[in-house]
Design goal:
The protein is α+β, with helices and mostly antiparallel strands. It contains three helices and six strands; from the N terminus they run βββαβααββ. The protein is globular, with a radius of gyration of 14 Å.
Length: 133
């Protein structure tokens, strides 16, 4: 099975990983964990979960578009947060941002609280699997 590595030029260059791997046979896209990192490699707003969530989804959308897909092609999301209480406290605003990218579409999702994330100042990281038609 042929695999294509995707690293959009508008995202920070990955170090030691790929942003996504697209299989040609099954058109399955494996999205690496994305954070609220801007193109310079810095977390866009180190203290704002909503801004980071928005930038994270924007980064995911960039990768999906390069693969010829859209956010509603995602079938599974795993969301890692450093503070689930903060996530729950802001779930209404998170929902608003979510609907900007997904509308009323809801893939299978898992939320996991972690002690920390690889990217310093990241409060959220999301990885996913998409099936591109």
């Amino acid at each position: 099975m042929q695999k294509t590595i995707l690293n959009p030029e508008t995202l920070a260059p990955p170090r030691g990983y790929s942003n996504a791997i697209l299989t040609q046979g099954g058109r399955v896209l494996f999205l690496a964990g994305q954070t609220g990192m801007d193109a310079t490699g810095k977390i866009a707003n180190p203290f704002d979960l909503i801004d980071q969530f928005h930038k994270t989804l924007e980064n995911m959308q960039t990768v999906l578009r390069q693969a010829g897909g859209s956010m509603t092609d995602i079938v599974k999301l795993t969301i890692y947060v450093t503070d689930k209480r903060a996530y729950h406290a802001q779930r209404s605003r998170i929902g608003e941002v979510y609907r900007e990218y997904f509308g009323k579409y809801f893939p299978a999702m898992t939320l996991i609280e972690v002690k920390g994330l690889y990217d310093q100042n990241a409060m959220i990281e999301i990885e996913g699997i998409a099936v591109i038609p």
